[in-house]
Amino acid sequence: MKRNPFPLVVLIVVVVFLYLPIAVLTANSFNTSRFGGTWEGFTLKWYYQLLLDNQVWIAFANSLLIAAGATLSSCVLGTTAALALHRWNTRLQVFHYSLIYTPLVIPEILMGISLLLSFTAVGIDCGLHTILIAHTTFCVSYVTMTVLSRLQDFDDSLIEAARDLGANAWISFIKVQFPLLLPGIVSGGLLAFTLSIDDFVITFFVAGPGSSTLPLMVYSMIKHSPKLPVINCLSSVMLLLTCLLVLASRALQNFRGNKAA
Amino acid sequence: MSAPSVLWLTVFFVVPTLLVVAISFHPAAPDGGIGKAWTLDTWRHISNPNYPAIVWRTLWISAATAASCVVLALPCAFAIARMQKKWRAIMAGLIMLPFWTSFVVRVFAWRLLLHPEGFLKHLLMTLHIAEPNTQLLYNSGAILLVSIYSFLPFAIMPIYAAAEKFDFSLLEAARDLGAKSFFAFRKVFIPGIRRGVVSATLMVFIPSVGSYVIPDLVGGKNSELIGNKIYQRTFPDRNLPHASALSAVMAIGVLVPLGFVALFLRRQDRCEAMRLADAGGTKQRGGAA
């Protein structure tokens, strides 16, 4: 039967639509023209200006620090959460699951403002530490979901076998379950790292003076700075960074998948 | 083992959320903090004519975004689901990749495209669609366009996940029985993947109700959304009770449709279960006869 080509045409148009702005942005970071309406020649001078901007480097260091911290803490919290959710099926776990699930669906701005209000109410000054707490909070859900989906493929009889052979609960976890879960944990961790390094809205609310991250930096440049082409460069660098992280996370999941198959 | 995450999320998610509601019943302190007394003033103030207009605009833009995303996502998901396995994985990755990249950067890219001296304006002027003084940025249309762009992957993925499980021979059957391809798409395919459509609608509607970056960067003075107002009340005005009350309104705008959908899905589940039980019964009866 002849297939209607219409859906395929829409798909192609949509993919172009999704990538066009990103492509134009990246191309413009090499464009001599300031507004990028027309192509006026290839240049690296905007990148050079970016390299010399001290503020950008400070923001980059902050972003890395927070992302590393949030990844580590959310991996610990998320893995324990996933193990608990997988093992038990009690009322507490139903509540636990909704605690993990709700932050994934509510708008970010609500989480941002509620954290800001709590910090203000308790009298904590905002800064890098509050950003770290906020990022850990939203990353936990993503790590938990990733590890939980790995656990669903996990063969629980392996643990039983280890226990039968005389390993106690702790040894069987460390020697059997943990190594098998590790790719899932790392892939969840990469996800957390990517989300943390790209987060704007929540960070915007809980950041204090002098605790800028890369997205905050880009945002304030967009709002206040006339250096449009430099923002293009910074944006292109951030796009590249995230794409690499996502591809790494994907590769890891596939590696695991191939081995299982 | 559940203790660390339950504790963490209770302290940093549940308590703060409840606090937002509580703070909206306190007055604002002159120093920008929160007063001790209890009051309904904030809520009285929120019902002045200014706010309902903003709430209304937020809701219609979100609804229009969700509808447009679903309409675009249906043929896309359909096309991907009919591809070979290898291509399906590649296309799904291609659709999801922009979603992982920085949100602010993608909105900024649109600001560049729509800029009076930007690429799109030049293109539209060469095609004689735009006048030199056509304003592409800073209006509700720009918000709608960029929202569709930003949230489209959220619509494609759940619909695709449902379409992947869809039995395409049903469509062939419909065609064999004389249905035109669009008719079969509408009457057989869409009902078959309605769960995906429902979750796609929510996945787009919810973040667009909460959207702040998009209206702030590509919207104008006359196209503010609740997100902008929450920001204004929090930082420039430093009126935290007001910000809390607006956040509570936003939370209601998100939770009400979520609740409705949960109810709808549960009812559908029950109908499905009854139908299955019924079909099983019929089969048994048939077998006995």
Description:
The complex is a heterodimer of chains A (261) and B (289). Chain A is mainly alpha-helical. Chain A has two domains: 1-43; 52-260, MetI-like fold (Orthogonal Bundle), CATH 1.10.3720.10. Helices cover 80% and strands 0% of the residues of chain A. Chain A has eleven helices and no strands. The longest helix of chain A is centred in the N-terminal third of the chain and has 34 residues, at 54-87. Chain A is globular and about 70 Å long. Chain A starts with 5 loop residues before the first helix and ends with a helix. The model of chain A has no long low-confidence stretch (mean pLDDT 87). By secondary structure, chain B is mainly alpha-helical. Chain B has a single domain (56-266), classed as MetI-like (MetI-like fold), CATH 1.10.3720.10. In chain B, helix 3 runs antiparallel to helix 10 (194-209), helix 8 packs antiparallel against helix 9 (181-192) and helix 10 runs antiparallel to helix 13 (240-288). Chain B is globular. Residues 281-289 of chain B have low confidence and may be disordered. At the A-B interface, helix 1, helix 3, helix 4, helix 5 and helix 6 of A face helix 1, helix 3, helix 4, helix 5 and helix 6 of B.
What key attributes describe this structure?
heterodimer; A: 261 residues; mainly alpha; MetI-like fold; B: mainly alpha; 76% helix; disordered C terminus
Coarse shape of chain B = globular
* Coarse morphology of chain A: globular
**Rg of chain B:** 24 Å
The CATH homologous superfamily of chain B is called MetI-like
Strand content of chain B: under 5%
Mean pLDDT of chain B: 86
CATH fold-level assignment of the largest domain in chain A: MetI-like fold
Number of domains of chain B: 1
Question: In terms of structural class, how would the helical and strand content of chain B be classed?
Answer: mainly alpha
The end-to-end span of chain A amounts to 34 Å
Name of the CATH first level of the largest domain in chain A: Mainly Alpha
